[in-house]
Automatic annotation (TrEMBL):
<dbReference type="Pfam" id="PF00001">
    <property type="entry name" value="7tm_1"/>
</dbReference>
<dbReference type="GO" id="GO:0016020">
    <property type="term" value="C:membrane"/>
</dbReference>
<dbReference type="GO" id="GO:0004930">
    <property type="term" value="F:G protein-coupled receptor activity"/>
</dbReference>
<keyword id="KW-0807">Transducer</keyword>
<feature type="transmembrane region" description="Helical">
    <location>
        <begin position="347"/>
        <end position="369"/>
    </location>
</feature>
<feature type="compositionally biased region" description="Polar residues">
    <location>
        <begin position="322"/>
        <end position="334"/>
    </location>
</feature>
<keyword id="KW-1133">Transmembrane helix</keyword>
<keyword id="KW-0675">Receptor</keyword>
<dbReference type="InterPro" id="IPR017452">
    <property type="entry name" value="GPCR_Rhodpsn_7TM"/>
</dbReference>
<keyword id="KW-0472">Membrane</keyword>
<feature type="transmembrane region" description="Helical">
    <location>
        <begin position="70"/>
        <end position="91"/>
    </location>
</feature>
<keyword id="KW-0297">G-protein coupled receptor</keyword>
<comment type="similarity">
    <text>Belongs to the G-protein coupled receptor 1 family.</text>
</comment>
<feature type="transmembrane region" description="Helical">
    <location>
        <begin position="111"/>
        <end position="132"/>
    </location>
</feature>
<feature type="transmembrane region" description="Helical">
    <location>
        <begin position="36"/>
        <end position="58"/>
    </location>
</feature>
<keyword id="KW-0812">Transmembrane</keyword>
<feature type="domain" description="G-protein coupled receptors family 1 profile">
    <location>
        <begin position="50"/>
        <end position="404"/>
    </location>
</feature>
Amino acid sequence: MENDTLSICSATINVTCWDLRVRELNANDAVAKTPIIAMMILLMVVGLTGNILVLFVYGKRRNKKSATHFIILLAIMDLIACAIIHPYVIYKLFHPHNQTWDITCKFFEFFIHWNLSLSGLSLLLIAIDRYLAICHPLKYLKFDDHVSKGIALITACSFAFSLPLFEFYGSAIYEIKTDNVILYAYRCDPKVKYQTSFILAAFAALIMGFFLVEVVAMVILYWKVAVVAYRRRNTIRPQLTASSSVASIYPSTSREPIELSNTYHTNNDFLTVPRFENSRKHTFPNKRNQFVGSSNSNMFSCAQTTRIHVKPSSTVHDDNSTTESTTGNAEMSRTNNFESRLKAAKILFCVTAVLFLSWMPFFIVRLTVTTFGEILKEDTNIKRVFGSFIHHLFYLNNAANPII
């Protein structure tokens, strides 16, 4: 009997009633979700500014290594997310009950999923890159040549993996009962026919499974990087101290090469022998290049008028000192290269950690709702706001990455 007294408001029946009710509900929800809206606006502004600066700084670098390419890739994805996805999400927060656009819903949900899955695969590829750079430098040289192919592959895979969203999502209708009125509202959500279907549940489980596999793989790879870095640091420090001592005793070996200008006088003209730099022996390397005569003389003697001009700044060191200093410089170069790769690994690990921390609450809540749905069935404003906050928390990584 109670249903006989209820009036119906929808976008096609009693449009005036529907419009007034929807406006009122949207305004109330927007007020309740003001902190979330403010958070999304802040993340959008910070993300736009930060990622533009990252692209400007790293784009000007001439010698781009694989880590630089990955940082640029993440910055591009985050910039697109902040410029396109964030405004769409903010608009949805202001209009939670009249999302009647169907095609727009499909496109943006596909784009959101593509962006997020590409971010996850990019971070996994970055973890592999850093693992090879620190733990297997020789294999890393081969892997570095195929970075662009790897980026193209994960882009295609994430694109294909996101295509089902076009079918699953749309403008879904649901009922809201208020003041003896049944309001048919619309929101961008899985279609009604898929909301309780096995295929959508399987797809969601597949997404969660891929995410957990990515997280476990990245944890293992970065753990191995940390172990190798710790051992390498303990090995490098004593060698670095010894190399510094050698460099302090022979400071000019690596900076001032030996420069000899040897001029020989023959019967008709002068002969200048090319200068030798960093030569361990003070004799010519072979007899073949020791004498070069003029076209008019085949035999001549250099012993009588040999003139050797040595620049005042030139210094000739002993063989042992040169060898020790060269070894020290090579060790210093390897150490600096290792430290540079390790620094990039630390930065990219922090990016991975932020993505993991921002996504975990979402998956925990989803798993809890799926497992204990009856316990959490009661709907309150606090639960709705908290659930909305968890669902928007993973957008944090779009703004946090450039800060890191």
